[in-house]
Description:
The protein is mainly alpha-helical. It is built from three helices and no strands. It has helices at residues 3-6, 19-115, 133-136.
Amino acid sequence: MSSAEIGGAGMKENNSPGGSIDERKRKRMISNRESARRSRMRKQQHLDDLIKRRSELEKQRIEIKRRIDVYQKLWEATVSENNALEALKAEMIKELESAKSRVCDFRAMERLETNFSGNRMLNPLMDVSGSRDSVLQPWQIGRSSQPIAATMFQF
């Protein structure tokens, strides 16, 4: 065998005119292999980064969903509380209007008392003693603490 055949499969020696071309092909092949290896490594690194990013996004999605659930429950509780407060407000408004009406009625009675303080017949809110207890106890209006005298005409 010749020295050219011993160096490789059909490669020629470096000192021959075709030897430098084969050497360039070999270097280019090695360079291409190294480039392909680096490309595969970059691709694998990119894939690993994407997997890591996906995992992070999944954790964020779960946390956001949990927070949405918490805020949803808080919102529902707030709406429920608001509805209860609105009902209470409506009830209190009715009570206030009723109280205002009673105050107006009471003031009107006081004016009547003031205008007709000397006339007991026109002032039914005062009992015989002149107190206002009958206003607080309307079932006793017109009753007096004195006994009713018998009339002269008895049959």
